[in-house]
TrEMBL record:
The chain crosses the membrane at residues 288-312, 318-341. The keyword Membrane applies. One of its GO terms (cellular component) is transport vesicle. It comes from the Eukaryota. PANTHER family: TRANSMEMBRANE PROTEIN 199. This is Biogenesis of lysosome-related organelles complex 1 subunit 5. Coiled coil: none annotated.
Amino acid sequence: MASVIKDTGEIWGRLFDHRPFIQGEVTFFLREFQEKRSDREVERLFKILEYTTELKESQLDRTEQLGDCHLPSLKANVDVALSMCNRVLQREENFDSDNVLSENRLLRKKEWEKFINDMSNKCERVDQTFQEKENEIQEFYSIVDPTVTIKPSKKLTDFILYDVKDTDGAPDGITYLHSKSKKFKKEKIANATLKIEDLRWLNKYLKENRKTATEKIYLHELFDDSDVILPTPKETPRNPELEARIKKLAAQQNNREYQAMTKSIDSARKFLPEDSVAFQMKQINKQLIAVAQFIFSVIAGFAFGFIGVELIVGDLDFGFRLLLGIICALIIALAEIYFLALKLNEYGFDVTPKSTKLHRD
């Protein structure tokens, strides 16, 4: 019985006794939150205290300086932003107002009317100026010579004969040609001519006709195949004294050419000095003397560089003396070549002797 009661008590203890479980949880809690953490919160509190002390000692003054530097500009920017916001609000209130909108519409309408009036005035002035310039150009290039006549083509003649109805105020050429169709034959009509006044009247008639007619006819179309008869210039007779002087000068020129062609045949008229042998020998001697002078100058320059420098300075190496002689000879040769070319160039031109006049002025 006692064993049964004991076993029953063990069953009760196993089923309803929670002390072992709670004791394990308490042990785990103490191990996690007391043994492991130990003084971690205290250390963190000390670190926070250190940071706070450091900020108080070092960063607080710097923060105040930065605030003193940047807070005025920040305040000014904020004030500007506030003023802009106020202006935006005021404009919004103005736009919302119907009176302001109506006034703006009236102003725009007046400005538009003023612009249209200005543009119309400018266009009128431009048209007027263009018309004036056109009239000036027409007057400048107008043909005022009454002797200029036009022989009309068949197309222009037929138009004047059959299409021109009203000839009141027309020039004589139009009325004359228009009347010919009734009294004379067509052979005589073909010999009729028109003047500039007739074409001007016909051009005005065509302008008026194009306003009402269905088929538009222009003057240049009718003017095709027409001939313009220009006046012949008057021939001015030449002065007889001038003609006689021209004939005299032509005869004298022919005489001079003949004398120049026949001078080699007649020995009495050989007067040029370059034709003689003495002159040629004299020229050859001058050229030979110039060439010889060039050669002797070059030799003298070489001797000065090869021997003279040694006599002045003292003993020198043979190669150095030879180089000095060649340099001096080249310098003198260049100078002599220049002067020799000038000299020979003077002899290269033909000398035209002064001859006696073959004619009298």
